[in-house]
Prior knowledge:
It contains 21 helices and 21 strands. Helix 21 links the parallel strand 19 and strand 20 (589-594). Helix 4 runs parallel beside helix 6 (125-134). The relative contact order is 0.06. It is 39% helix and 21% strand. By secondary structure, the protein is an alpha/beta fold. The strands form 5 sheets. The chain has an 8-stranded mixed beta barrel with strand order 1-2-3-4-5-6-7-8, surrounded by 4 helices. The protein starts with 13 loop residues before the first helix and ends with a strand.
Amino acid sequence: MVECSQFEVLPVNEQLKHRLSDSSLGRELLSIFTLKNLTPVYQPIVDIQNRKVFGFEALSRGPENSPLYWPLHLFHVAEEHGCLFEMDLLARQIAIESYHQFDKNEYLFVNVTVNALMQSSHRRSQTLDCLQSLGIDVSQVVIEITELQPVEDFDLFIQSINHYRHMGFKVAIDDLGGGYNGLRIWSEVKPDFVKIDKHFIFDLAENKDKQRFIETICALAKGLHTKVIAEGVEDEKTLKALEKIGVDYVQGYLFKKPQPEPTLNLDYVWSNVVETDLRENETAACLVRETPSILPELPVSEITELFLQKSELDYVPVVEDGLVLGMVWRREVMDLFASRFGRDLHQRKPVKKIMDKSPVTIDVQMPLVELSRIVTEYEGSHRGDVFIITKNKQYQGCGCFIDLLRAMTDLKVQSAQYANPLSGLPGNVPIQNTIRSFLSRQIDFMVIYIDMDHFKPFNDFYSFERGDDIIRSMTKILHHHTKESTDFIGHIGGDDFIIISPRVKKYQSICEGVLHEFRQVVPSYYDDEDRKRGAIKAVDRDGKERHFPMISLSLGVLLVAPGMFSHQQMLTSYATQAKKKAKSEGGNTYSVIDSKKLNLVQG
């Protein structure tokens, strides 16, 4: 096999040699080129959800005890001496060659400066040549674009990026928010990953403005199908803030400083999954199927033969020392072998080269409701049909979508035992269980307490039958403005309802939607004369006749942050306070209590 180091990286022509010989730093650069005297180091990029290494960023170090040891100075000096492209390419090739020697399957992020990207476009295939000579799959490498100077020719820049894309590389933008054209590059390039600049990560746990900035970036990234990486994570409280916001990947000294050898062993160890009081039939534990796994070094030809022999086999997990590395799918293997030269190119490779490195992997304690939400995100993809189940990161088996459906159906049948016969919604026992479940999961969620104003006089005046019709109508309205896969709707009793949901940012649209539709519907339940009057004549609690306005709604919203409530009685008390505040405003409104502030905010 040809080693990457045997490639001619430059050549260092006489003109460049002469130019570099004019200064001490230039001669230092010339020595680096001649001796290929760069040392690659690797820092892990960690998948927050799966809590394992997802990839490594390759960084370069110059000669020790040299003014060019640190990469920022090294590349600035190279640019000043007109050899940035050559230094960029040398660093990249040495990093790839070294990474290959460690036989890792994780993604490799290699830096390419914008300035180098715009130079010598005819030589960009040298990185691909290096990968091919070493037998490294190009899809394993991520080109990470670093801005040292602003982009002057965007057309040429996009053309250069697309050249890498067409070769099969993934693309990342480095230091989003810290460069010159971050958002414009994002919109033009449509990268696979964006890295948030360290400035926005420092003191994140205490800085609400930075949290809002990263929340916005994550929302934008989701819409553009881009994954977000947070750099510079140095302490646990920052990590927890990023977990709460929903960042995909993290990188920083908390996990590991850059090391000469890429390692999967991290310095930071997550605490075990928080134990909840959920019963086993409410978590993924009830879905575990013991499924044989294979080792990552098994030849592709053998797993193909296994699929051919066992027609019922659609997938096989790839596991080593109890750790899940990926999944091999029948459909993808057969498609690969059906392609031209597919068998000849891949049959001798180990399965780790062709496996799906990011199968749906969940912990055995994950609630079924949350699992259902995750799986439905894979709608239309066979990868949502099966998921891998772990316990304390150790492989337990697989779960199937069809089993999840059955379990969810069983749970609904159980809930029906406590359902309100009028609305069909879960009653107090499921409501209390749901609140307790959300509290134990230590996540942000919201409780919306819904109360009908002036319902009793209406019920007494028009009859229970018409009152029951309004209750049923209210149930439909709540379904219209909630999401079945994530939101819980309960009927506390009488004219009181409740919504419990993790979609905290949606409280305003849910409340306004419910209020708007209810205002449109409720007049139809009044007789013409009362509808024109906007009120009914009825007897109050003191036996006196008075006018009662049309039924309205008062909504109390409680935004619940992890750790703010030690028991559900306290939570219910604050939700009731929010409802009473809305009621005092005259109805058809909502009031919000943010548990982080514990004060009322008028909706």
